[in-house]
Amino acid sequence: MGEVIDILCFGAHPDDVELGMAGTIYQEVQKGTRVGIIDLTRGELGSRGDEHTRKEEAARASEILGIHARENLGMADGFFEHSKDNLMAIVTKIRQYRPSIVFCNASSDRHPDHGKGSKLVQDACFLAGLLKVKTELDGQEQEHWRPKRVFTYIQDHYIQPDFVVDITDSFDKRMEAVMAYNTQFLDNNKGHKTPISSEEFMIFMKGRLAEFGRRINVKYGEGFTSVNPLKVSNIADLL
Fold it and tell me: Which is it for strands 7-11 and 136-137: parallel, antiparallel or unpaired?
């Protein structure tokens, strides 16, 4: 069956997961939660860096966060499609790691890959639970598995969060993990300018975290939406 991961986080590109929820991941790892990241593409169309530097940067970010597994599915950056092959690749990983919770990109965002990737992951989470959808890993037929919860993290476009995680204590580690992608952010302002390679983007990102934090009366927060309604048995649990 392989190594079981409690929380499996998907991103269309290396750095998506860090930008969306690095603080939450770090805190969960510190609690003993097993967390993994799967990048759909290598980010090879990025204006700065290349697939080799992105791979190295992802490894550094993973080490900073202390996650238990990271893989890249090698889909075509910018051109991957909602196809059976891509769905089945994700289904195989969900069944391999058997996460209770899956996180993925926002359903709509500035980069079209984010919405496409989110739809792929959400649909794959459903398909992974179907008995008659057959997959194999290392020559062995996999058991069906459906995560209990699927959530999306928030990146560029503002989305009203369904819940916010207090990351005040992990803010510095979050920023360290993001800045591991030094070809993408600042990098002493070397290379082609992009919407995320300026000091203004850093101000925006910290402001977004502060905004979400303010919503729950803390300094910094990361916001998330739930694909399905959250189950509550006791109203007091919401306090």
Answer: unpaired
